[in-house]
Amino acid sequence: MTTTLKSVMSSIIIVPILLFTGCGEKEKEQKNLENKEALIKGEYILKFSHVVSPNTPKGKAASYFEKRLEELTKGRIDVQVYPSSQLYKDNAVLKALKLDSVQMAAPSFSKFGKIVPQLALFDLPFLFKDMAHLHRVQDGAVGQKLKDMVNSKGYIALNFWDNHFKQLSSSKKPLILPEDAKGQKFRIMSSKVLEEQFKAVGANPQMMPFSEVYSGLQQGVIDGQENTNSNIYTKKFHEVQKYLTVTNHGYLGYLVVMSEKFWNSLPKELQNDVIQAMNEATVKEREYAEELNTKQFNLIKEYAKQTGKLEIINLTKEQKDAWRTAVSKIYPDFYDKDKIGEDLIKGALATE
């Protein structure tokens, strides 16, 4: 006999006994309510797959989402978080979402390249003034257009989560003005935008898996790279580079998406709970990312101070403007709607 059937049978047996012993109406109602609540707990199982460790901003936010959604739904949705690629790697998770083999994931934008290439908007260099501007774009009309594009491909796009802004590093020479990059070989991930970004300053972009960047820098296969402070620190890129320039020129982030089949199976009140829990988790994730970025940049600075092997360069406004002018000339190359779209690029620039 199943647990659910036992619960139902017990409610049938107990009620007459309670009546026989003079049980009051309030006690009967309470018991029936408890039985009903027991039946609906765990009514939906939501598997949340991601590729990073639980102590990263994404990992911590996923755990927060799990706790918060279970609270809001009183256990009707059982959230099960699977970190560190326990279920799927990012290159396989989008297919798994389509099959409803997993119900939620948070892949990096690059994984959507063939599905919604317009997400390459976030690769465009010096498009965003600061994190506040970036978040206004993501949370506003431009962000919604991008989510709608993802939704049209059979997913439910929920929210954007941060890694952070990227910095430039080199072992060859300090990167102070755009011409300093000329002739240098920079590692990039697969992205037409990033390829054109480095070509715009006379550099040579080299596509290379993230796992090979450290050895590539160490052996001189590449001269430099671009990445967030957290990636630079955790992968020790700063230990095999001589110069690190604080540019905040590009952005790395994630889009949290849900299985369309799972979303459509939820009643409206539970969909609302998902939205609320996700909005709260997004605020937390952005806080976690900011804290980690600051902490690990401080550790990089401490390494530079203690060893003298790394020079950290902070650009003046004029120097940063020179970089922006040099690379922003690639924007029109992506005005085509099949690439990014003029409306999205100009919409992001115009967002206040």
Explain what the structure shows:
The protein is built from 13 helices and 10 strands. Helix 1 runs antiparallel to helix 2. The N and C termini lie far apart (62 Å). The longest helix is centred in the last third of the chain and has 40 residues. By secondary structure, the chain is of the alpha/beta class.
Q: What is the 3D shape?
A: globular
Percent strand: 15-25%
- Give the SSE string: HHEHEHEHHEEHEHEHEEHHEHH
Low-confidence stretches: 1-23
Q: How would a crystallographer describe the biggest sheet?
A: 10 strands, mixed
Structural class per helix/strand content? alpha/beta
Question: Helix content range of the residues, please?
Answer: 40-55%
Give average pLDDT, whole number: 91
Q: Number of helical runs?
A: 13
Termini, distance in Å? Answer: 62 Å
State Rg: 25 Å
Please report the total strand number as a whole number. Answer: 10
Keyphrases for this structure?
about 350 residues; alpha/beta; about 15% strand; globular
Outline the secondary-structure elements:
Elements: H1 3-20, H2 25-40, E1 44-49, H3 57-72, E2 77-82, H4 90-98, E3 104-105, H5 131-139, H6 141-151, E4 155-170, E5 185-188, H7 192-199, E6 204-207, H8 213-218, E7 224-228, H9 229-234, E8 243-246, E9 251-259, H10 260-265, H11 268-307, E10 311-314, H12 317-328, H13 342-350
Parallel strand pairs: 1-2, 1-3, 5-6, 5-7, 8-10
Antiparallel strand pairs: 3-9, 4-7, 4-8, 4-9
Helix pairs in contact: 1-2, 3-11
